[in-house]
Amino acid sequence: MTRRPVIGITAYVEPAGWAVWRDVPATLVPQAYVRSVTAAGGRAVVLPPDDTDADVLELLDGLLLAGGADVGPERYGQPPDPRTEARPERDAGELAVLTAALAADLPVLGVCRGMQLLAVAYGGTLHQHLPDVVGHDGHRPAPGVYGSHPVRFTAGSLAGDVMAGVDRVNSYHHQAVADPGGLVVTGRADDQVVEAVEDPARRFVLGVQWHPENEADPRPVTALVRAAMSHGSQPAGPRPRPARPRPPVTTG
């Protein structure tokens, strides 16, 4: 019997409320991520921040770096802007598992913050407050309100193939990739903000600035699950440990 590919989704740790409980620190991800992975044929597993080791990769076929709070600017050599809201524990845990995933050539998708973390892992930098760069708030119109804008992708790229025929995406972010480091920019908004990055030397490493899990057609998530199927198609049971060569990335 074959099994569904297992996709690890990195999680938020934020104060949350349910039933009679209020402001309880909780490990969580929006259900949209889980739903989109399941709909694509994968099994979603939530990964709390944990920088002790990356042994969880032995159980995964793909990694989805979810959105959320800002990446700490010390990770890319900048002082913090007053409007930057970082989560150091999450940065440490995600960079540990991302570095090992890249070394093992595991399929990786970065969404919003996840794309920015990919760029930082590859030696890049971020704009800490995008309105200062582009002169408008269109990428995050209001708290809890998604924007929408035109986008174009590089023909023949992974992003271009995955998003063929798509010319608009949603938007909710106040930071963006300034320098992609060792990644290649393959998508931009109409105001030149980086919308997609990838590593053509690897099997599947893609970052997208928008939130595909909230789209009716979440193509990047579907593409991640399909890329992971070569891992997940083996019979159920014990699995060999992945090779761990030295990764060509930096983690700050």
Automatic annotation (TrEMBL):
Pfam families: Peptidase_C26. Keywords: Glutamine amidotransferase, Transferase. Residues 70-90, 227-252 are annotated as: Disordered. One of its GO terms (biological process) is polyamine catabolic process. One of its GO terms (cellular component) is cytosol. CDD domains: GATase1_2. SUPFAM superfamilies: Class I glutamine amidotransferase-like. Gene3D superfamilies: 3.40.50.880. PANTHER family: GLUTAMINE AMIDOTRANSFERASE PB2B2.05-RELATED (PTHR43235:SF1). Residues 237-252 have a biased composition (Pro residues). GO terms for molecular function: gamma-glutamyl-gamma-aminobutyrate hydrolase activity; transferase activity. This is Putative glutamine amidotransferase. The keyword Transferase applies. PROSITE patterns: GATASE_TYPE_1. It comes from Micromonospora humi. The keyword Transport does not apply.
